[in-house]
Amino acid sequence: MKKLKLLKFGRDFKPDKQIILRDYLAIERTRLANERTLLSYIRSSLYLLLGSIGFFQLKDFPNFKYLALVSLVFSVIFFIIGVFRFRLLKKSLKRLYYMSEKDKDK
Predict the structure, then answer these.
(1) Rounded CA gap, 44 and 74, in Å?
(2) Residue 5 placed within a domain
(3) For labeling, which of 18, 29, 56, 68 is most exposed (least CB within 10 Å)?
(4) Rounded mean pLDDT of 33-40?
């Protein structure tokens, strides 16, 4: 039975001379830290979004609309930066991991 790609999160480790367990675990720790950082960016973005919604709800203070707009813009910026950094590091890790796999084939 073929495993679903959706349910597979990590890579199977096969020890060899090129990539040792310590290096593999370092790559996995970096990958998990990257995911944790993405979640942190998303959390910050959601907090700013909630803050901007709260500022929009304040009808007695019309000057807070500018603060709400700034908060909304920063929320979108945080989300975009987080996703961009996540994809950049993920691509870099894939390249590093695949380069080490190519070395072991030689």
Answers:
(1) 10
(2) no
(3) 29
(4) 94
In which domain, by residue range, is 33 found? 21-105
What one-letter code names the amino acid at 28? Answer: E
For the CA atoms of 33, 36, 40, 42, the dihedral, rounded to the nearest 10 degrees, stands at: 120
Specify the 3-state DSSP secondary structure of 13.
Answer: coil
Label residue 18 by pLDDT band (50, 70, 90). low
Neighbours of 39 (CB within 10 A): 12
Query: What does the pLDDT average to over 59-88?
Result: 92
pLDDT average, residue stretch 94-105: 65
CA dihedral sign, ordered 66, 67, 70, 76: negative
